[in-house]
Structures are given as C-alpha cells and as structure tokens.
Amino acid sequence: MSVITVRANSPFTVEGEIVSSHTPAGRVASTVHVGSPADLGKANAAIEAWCTANQRSHAGVSWEIYGDPGDDPNVHEVKVCYLLGS
Predict the structure, then answer these.
(1) 62 pairs with which residues across the strands?
(2) What's the angle, vertex CA 51, arms to CA 49 and CA 57, rounded to 5?
C-alpha cells in the first residue's frame, strides 16, 4: 500500500481511500532535501546527526512533505521532519 500525503489549506470532504490527518504539535528538527527521493536517507541521517550533536532525542514520529516533482527528479524537494522529545 502506498500513502501519499497532500497538505490542504482548508477543510475538505473525506471520501473513498482519502483520510484526514494532522501532524503532531511540538518542536521539530527538519531539513529540506533537494534531489532524487532515492537519496532521502541522507536527509534522515543529517537530522539524526544533528539530534546527537545537540543532545536532543526524537519522539519516534517523523513525516515528509513532498513538493511538486516536476519533470526532473534530481530537483525534487522534500521537507523531512522529526518530532523532538522532551
């Protein structure tokens, strides 16, 4: 099963396989990855390294926000977010 997340700026009607959800409240560590989605592991590793260097833990929740893929997958923009622990 594949899940695609789309950010909506206003309420919408849920139907079929579409579900409404939200991101959790709190502080996050994030980065923007520009490039092939196959290289997203580097963005996750960068956030984990930042958490270690700054003595921050993550709460086990993360998400990605995908921009318009356009025609060139090498410039695809994805924001990667990790909810930080207390």
Answers:
(1) 82
(2) 135
Contact indicator for 5, 65 with CB cutoff of 8 Å: yes
Q: What is the DSSP letter of 83?
A: E
User: 26 is written with which tokens?
Assistant: 């709190």
- Quick one: pLDDT at residue 1? 45
Q: What is the pLDDT of residue 80?
A: 94
Cα dihedral across residues 54, 56, 57, 63: positive or negative: negative
* CA dihedral sign of residues 32, 35, 36, 39: negative
Q: CA angle, corner 7, sides to 30 and 57, nearest 5?
A: 25
Q: Going edge to edge, which strands form the sheet with 77-84? A: 28-34, 77-84, 58-66
Q: What is the pTM of this model?
A: 0.75
